[in-house]
Structure formats: structure tokens, C-alpha cells
Amino acid sequence: MEFIQNNLEIIYFVIFCVFIGIEVIANVPAILHTPLMSGANAISGVIMVGAIIMMIQIPPTNYVLLGLGGIAVFLGALNISGGFFVTGRMLKMFNTKK
């Protein structure tokens, strides 16, 4: 409970960003999904690098933080690879058929 009270402004900011993100993504036209996916891949790459840098600074005995960092790196890599896969499939739709 003390953690929530000490970080209440940050929690409100994260919740606000989630709602803004949902609103922005919901109003993107279908033609812009491929460039948006590329931007999301870049952001996931930055998140993954940040998670790796944070994991380097965690003491080796703090298994909870190391586990959370590992999950963040895994999800970032999964998001990047999935994004490139979907982007590649979408771009193949615009190729001329032989």
C-alpha cells in the first residue's frame, strides 16, 4: 500500500497513457497500419534495450526483478519478431503476381 501511495502520480500517468494510446490506435485508418507497425517495432526495440540495461544493474540475488526483466526482454523480442512478420506479410500483398 505504501508503494501505491508513494507512486500515485506515476500510476495515474501510466493509466492516462494507456487510454491515450488506445484512442490513438483505434482511430488509425487501415492504410497506415504498416507504417504504424514499423514504428511500434522501433519502440519495442528501445524498450528491449532499456530492459537489458536495467537487468545489468540488478543485483544477481534479486530474482524477482531479474525475472521481470527477463519477461520484458522476452515480450519485447516477441513483439519485434511478430511485428516484422506481420509487416512482411502485409507488404507481400502489394507485390505484383507472376
UniProtKB/TrEMBL annotation:
Protein role: The transhydrogenation between NADH and NADP is coupled to respiration and ATP hydrolysis and functions as a proton pump across the membrane.
Protein name per its UniProtKB record: proton-translocating NAD(P)(+) transhydrogenase
Record GO biological process: NADPH regeneration
Species assigned in the record: Ulvibacter litoralis
Membrane-topology annotation of the record: Multi-pass membrane protein
Domain NAD(P) transhydrogenase alpha subunit C-terminal: start-end pairs: 12-95
InterPro entries, per the entry: NADP_transhyd_a_C
Compartment list: Cell inner membrane
GO molecular function, one term: proton-translocating NAD(P)+ transhydrogenase activity
Catalysed reactions, as listed in the record: NAD(+) + NADPH + H(+)(in) = NADH + NADP(+) + H(+)(out)
Principal place of residence: membrane
Pfam families noted in UniProt: PNTB_4TM
One GO CC annotation: plasma membrane
Transmembrane spans: 12-32, 39-58, 64-88
EC assignment: 7.1.1.1
Keywords recorded for this protein, A-Z: Cell inner membrane, Cell membrane, Membrane, NAD, NADP, Translocase, Transmembrane, Transmembrane helix
